[in-house]
Write a structure and sequence with these properties.
The chain is α/β, with parallel strands linked by helices. The protein has two domains: 3-221, DHBP synthase, CATH 3.90.870; 237-329, Rossmann fold (3-Layer(aba) Sandwich), CATH 3.40.50.11030. The chain has eleven helices and 15 strands. The strands form two sheets. Strands 1, 2, 3, 4, 5, 6, 7, 8, 9, 10 and 11 form an eleven-stranded mixed beta sheet that branches. Strands 12-15-13-14 form a four-stranded parallel beta sheet, sandwiched between helices. A hairpin with a 6-residue loop joins β2 (30-32) and β3 (39-43). The longest helix is centred in the last third of the chain and has 16 residues, at 286-301. The protein binds threonylcarbamoyladenylate and magnesium ion.
Amino acid sequence: MTQVLELDPESPQQDAIKHAASIIRDGGLVAFPTETVYGLGADAMNENAVRKIFEAKGRPSDNPCIVHVASRGMLDRASTGINSRAELLIKEFWPGPLTLVLDRKPEVPSLVSAGLPTIAVRMPNNRIALELIQAAGVPIAAPSANSSGRPSPTTAAHVLDDLAGRVDLILNGGDTKIGIESTVLDIKGDPPVILRPGWITEERLRSVIGEVGASASEEDLRRSPGTRHRHYSPLARVILVEDGQTQQIEKLCVEYLNRGSVGYIGHSRLSINSESFYPIYLEAAADKYAHSIYWALREIDRKGPEIIIVESINDEGVGASVMDRLRRAAS
Ligand code: TXA
Ligand code: MG
């Protein structure tokens, strides 16, 4: 059975935090909000507990997890190799949506990192998450709390949809603020390389540490195995269309409407009147798309169309990270 507890995100109830921490210490699974998306957490130092994460999500065992810490001491328990660039980034962006790939300490089970000698670590900027990690007293391994391949969860209801019966407790702290995942940066490379674009943009990283390599070479993708797998996919097929081409988008929708129902997520208003047309309009700003895109994909999926047409946004800054997710959802 999965228990759900509602928490005040500004001042989390301490009895609930203690209860959640005891589940983590006993080797159980707790889903919790972060500032990006909900995570599915287990004690990162307990191999059996970490194995449960992979089972619950149906996650391929070659896809490593991010470990969440609440203090410098915990970071040092899990990892070494914190060079001067890493120090600068930690100072600037933690707690926050930046994950650093460092060297894994041998005490951390290799399953966490899918056998890699490295470990991905971040300090989330969310009170519920931080208080849970602190109360558990151990680093918490936590991938996004969706079943493998599905859009990441931005509400407790999304977690329940995917993982009911497979997670001991869900801490409901409301909608996540950001809505897409953290930036994953391999800090050991020279220059450091972005393995997964996210909320912290390349420009912001450059402003702190100078040169940063963009990801996407095959070699880099091997280093971040997770980026290779099917991702962010609703049940419906996603078709990504160009920004602002209203008439072409309408034409495409009508074409597909001849064959069945059609979902649409976009910022251009369409004049289509059909009971089989399920539009969700978002503002074109990248932060607005980021906040609501996973929710919108899941919302339309519930109505069961075979096709969801999604309008692109400007591919700059956070927009590039949103477009990365949309391209993967559409591939
Ligand atoms: O915002 C986030 O990062 C969320 C919240 C819950 O913190 N977590 C998240 O985890 O998105 P997940 O498992 O869905 O994505 C983890 C990403 C994958 O792309 C994986 O390949 C990469 O991090 N990763 C993890 N450990 C790694 C390592 N040792 N080396 C390279 N990449 C790693
Ligand atoms: Mg994920």
